[in-house]
Each structure stands twice: as C-alpha cells, then as structure tokens.
Hints:
This protein has a five-stranded mixed β-sheet with strand order 3-2-1-4-5. It contains seven helices and five strands; from the N terminus they run ααααββββααβα. A hairpin with a 4-residue loop joins strand 1 (50-56) and strand 2. It has one domain: SCP2 sterol-binding domain (Nonspecific Lipid-transfer Protein, Chain A, 2-Layer Sandwich). The longest helix is centred in the first third of the chain and has 11 residues, at 29-39. By secondary structure, the chain is α+β, with helices and mostly antiparallel strands.
Amino acid sequence: xxxxxxxxxxxxxxxxxxxxxxxxxxxxxxxxxxxxxxxxxxxxxxxxxxxxxxxxxxxxxxxxxxxxxxxxxxxxxxxxxxxxxxxxxxxxxxxxxxxxxxxxxxxxxxxxxxxxxxxxxxxxxxxxxxxxxxxxxxxxxxxxx
Length: 145
C-alpha cells in the first residue's frame, strides 16, 4: 500500500482536520510527542506496552517514547537499551510520517529514517485518533419532543 492510498483510502490521521502541516512543523520535538500522546486512541492502546527509542538526527535529540496503560509519554536524552524499536530520522521525515505524506517502508527505501523492528512505529501511528479541531463548544439546546 503506497502513501497515496494511505492519504486517500485510509482514515484521516493528521493534517486533515486534527492539525495542519504548518502546526505540526512549528511544534518543538517534545511538543510534537505530547501532541501524539493527546491523539492516542485509548481503546487501541489498551494492553499495548513498549518503549521506542527515537533519534532526531538533524536536531541531535534523543527521546524514548513509552506506551503504557493506554498513554504515550516520553523522556528526552536518555537512550534506553531495552527499547523495542529504534527509529533514527530527521525531523522533516518524522513530520511526513505523522502527516501521512509517506509511510515508513517508503521513507526507509528513500534513505530517510533507519529503523529496527519497523512494524512497531507503524503500529504506533495507526493507534492515533483523528478529531475535528472545529468542534462545537456550546451546542444549542435541543427541542423537547
């Protein structure tokens, strides 16, 4: 399945209602991982647990993403030898993955990220929920029947 199919045939992930590309690119890497954590579908995350090491090469940053108890958290700067996955990439490649402009196997073929245990990062991105940022804050009172 190619990136075009993901953008056209799969559920919206990002940049199509949840946040736009400019918003994603403007986030610091730490805020980006907070954003991903806020989008984790707790039902899909239930029973899942792993640690993923993410090295953002162009910014010289290292993070450990921790998926536990239906929550995604992160720790910066402490590589974890027990990490299930190691993902090494530049920040633009991370943004493209989150925006579903590419998929991990295509990005690896293009030489962007390097990954050990490639299935894990794809599974994490698949657990992200999509919501409309333009929701009704106050709804009109419904008429009585």
